[in-house]
Amino acid sequence: EYVYTTKQLEGAETHDEYWNAAMREMVHTGYMHNYMRMYWGKKILEWSNTPEHAYRTTLYLNNKYFLDGRDPNSFANVAWVFGQHDRGWTEREVYGKVRYMSSGGLERKAKPGQYVEKVEKRIEESG
């Protein structure tokens, strides 16, 4: 449905306000809440033209902006997005048997609207 370039993702230029806030938090602080970090990676997989491109993009953004980028744990986190250290799930388009995360699931398990407000406030206050 949506396909974004690496440049669009890096600029937080997607249709998804939750994802954009997560990307902006990462760029401005080097940090992202762990649940948002999972969602962030899963959406890159969903919005990329191939899994290989998604992996390269996720690793590039992870290593460029996260404070723990290039750390072995960080590489494992990226691999998890693509199914490493996880069980198989019901097969679906784009993902195959890799775990899927949706904005609806995010809304059920977290408070992403409050997260967006918090990130925007933090960025605004930092100038």
Fold blueprint:
Blueprint: H1 6-10, H2 17-29, H3 34-46, H4 51-65, H5 72-81, H6 103-109, H7 112-126
Helix pairs in contact: 2-3, 2-7, 3-4, 4-5
Please describe what this structure looks like:
Helix content is 61%, strand content 0%. The protein has a single domain, classed as DNA Cyclobutane Dipyrimidine Photolyase, subunit A, domain 3 (Orthogonal Bundle). The longest helix is centred in the middle third of the chain and has 15 residues, at 51-65. It is built from seven helices and no strands. It is globular, with a radius of gyration of 14 Å. The chain is mainly α and 127 residues long. Helix 2 (17-29) runs parallel beside helix 7 and helix 4 runs antiparallel to helix 5 (72-81). The N and C termini lie far apart (35 Å). Its cofactor is FAD. It catalyses: cyclobutadipyrimidine (in DNA) = 2 pyrimidine residues (in DNA). InterPro entries: Crypto/Photolyase_FAD-like_sf, Photolyase_Class-2.
Structural class: mainly alpha
Q: Write down the overall geometry.
A: globular
CATH fold label: DNA Cyclobutane Dipyrimidine Photolyase, subunit A, domain 3
Q: What are the low-pLDDT stretches, counting only 5+ consecutive residues below 50? A: none
Assigned CATH superfamily: DNA Cyclobutane Dipyrimidine Photolyase, subunit A, domain 3
Fraction of helical residues: 55-70%
- Work out the strand percent: under 5%
Q: For the report, how would you describe the main beta sheet?
A: none
Secondary-structure element string = HHHHHHH
Compute the number of strand runs.
Answer: 0
Radius of gyration (Å): 14 Å
CATH C-level name = Mainly Alpha
Cofactor: FAD
Protein name: Deoxyribodipyrimidine photo-lyase
Keywords: DNA damage, DNA repair, DNA-binding, FAD, Flavoprotein, Lyase
EC number: 4.1.99.3
